[in-house]
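Lab manual, section 2.4: Encoding a predicted structure.

Procedure: take the sequence of the chain (372 residues), apply the prediction step described in section 2.3, and record the output as structure tokens. A sample record is shown.
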Amino acid sequence: MQPSDLKNLKIAVVGAGYAGAAAAKALSLLGATVDVYEQASRIHEVGAGIGLRPSTMDRFRQWGIFDAIAKVSSPSDYFEILTATAEPIIKEAWPEIDTFGEKTRLIHRCDFIEALLSVLPEGMVHLGHKLEGIQDEGDRATLTFANGASATADLVVGADGIKSVVRARLFGDNRPVFSGEHAYRVVIPVGDAHGMAVDDNFRMYIGRGTKVYFLPLRHRDQVSFDITALCPDSTWAPKVTKDDLLKCVEGFDERIVDITRGLDMDAVNCRAVYDIDPVGTWHSGSVVLVGDAAHSMLHHQGQGANSAILDAGALADALKDAGSVKEALASYQAVRKPVTDELQRISRQGWTEDEISDVFPGQKPASQTPAS
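Recorded output:
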């Protein structure tokens, strides 16, 4: 599209998480008028650490926000997979580590979203706007919110997560699918890591039915400590005790057991893990999905946040290169959907048949069964 066309483009982004904030930044750099509508009254990301891949960091460099992200993250050279008792299985440099002359960087989710939002112009993000309806009018769309407000835009970007209202209203009711597992996440001081925080590299310890993720956050002098375990309880935010966690890490390296024993349960984020089946179509003529709204995936490949950032970049590229919004949206889907479809597929391959049978005798969680 011509610079003058992009400058006249009015864009509404629904959701101010990773995908929404990144899309807002990328699209505003095209010269478009961008407004972000977020249902929460304040933005506070919970959870723990994630890894940002070199291709993601390169997007930040292109957008002029690399320094804001680098300031609150630590470079990592490699990842390591070990047995439950800390015997090495695999040690590899991060994929694409030299592609852009930049390493994978480890960052806390809260620092990440705060850094993204900090580079958006003041007044762009509108809090307290819970989406209730969307009317697709072909060359534009109108949003209505629970607070009585409404907004009409030439392009609506649905970045409203796994429970996306935009997706449900326009692109099919791809409801969250329970993975058959829980994730227990907490950030602890390096001093509570029992000597396991020796460098800036990610490690995963694999036991039967349980994986422990250990992700240093040196810039915070902390460690992200995550336990993922098979569990039949699909309650979105399950109630879990210290004894439950200790049972998950039975037989693990005694240091991991000691870390678990010392956790403050009030600080542990406990949730059942969900994704969605692939969405057939991500766009109409004036509405498009990005991030988890388009392709929520399990965390086993560590690609959820990275995929959201790459979506934002690809969408901005498509708008710049195409002749119209509709053409751009089709191009964006053609570029990104095959990649995320495959990531969704391989991210579901987290457990062996025997492990699943232990917890789900004679059956499988829906996410472990091929989509029809």
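Check your result against the sample. The two ends are 38 Å apart (CA to CA).
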